[in-house]
Write a structure and sequence with these properties.
With about 160 residues, the protein is an alpha+beta fold. It has helices at about 1-20, 75-95, 105-130, 145-155; strands at about 25-30, 35-45, 45-50, 55-60, 65-70, 135-140. Helix 1 runs parallel beside helix 4. The radius of gyration is 23 Å and the shape is elongated.
Length: about 160
């Protein structure tokens, strides 16, 4: 009966996951080191299949220490830094006036100045956006019972 129930849960999870947006996860080994990351393609009772660089990657549940959903804080900060530098660089470069008698700078100098101003501001905004992320951490430690809790979370993530 347990095997039938487990099979039904796995079948349901695989079916549900095909209908929803892909979930990005970071996978850590039993020692706590990040070993892989990617989008979940499929799961079953003993295997996690991720899509990494457009190719499938199989990870045995027995080797998984924990799984964290969503991207890390550093990703938000990096995206914010790049965005802030580009936007402010463009704004300051567009307002350049080499013939101005007080602040005279060329568009190239304005782009550099704007990038130096915009990068820290964008990083701060990226850091603030992590408050709204709400990632979840699932401790697996190679235990199939804890793995089933993660599978139940995947079923709950189904869009309504």
């Amino acid at each position: 009966m347990k095997k039938l129930l487990s099979f039904c849960i796995v079948l349901l999870v695989c079916w549900e996951m095909s209908a929803q947006n892909k979930l990005f996860v970071r996978v850590y080994d039993l020692e706590g080191h990040k070993v892989n990351k990617g989008y979940i393609l499929a799961v079953n009772d003993s295997l996690l299949i991720l899509e990494k660089n457009k190719s499938p990657l199989e990870i045995r549940v027995k080797t998984i220490g924990m799984i964290k959903t969503k991207r890390s804080t550093g990703n938000n900060v990096l995206i914010g830094t790049i965005s802030g530098a580009i936007v402010m660089g463009g704004i300051v470069a567009a307002s350049a006036d080499p013939d101005n008698w007080i602040l005279d700078y060329t568009p190239a100098e304005g782009a550099i100045i704007g990038a130096f101003i915009g990068a820290p501001a964008g990083a701060a905004v990226g850091l603030m956006t992590t408050v709204f992320k709400k990632p979840k951490t699932f401790i697996i430690d190679g235990d199939l019972e804890k793995w089933k809790v993660f599978l139940e979370h995947l079923v709950e993530k189904k869009p309504k």
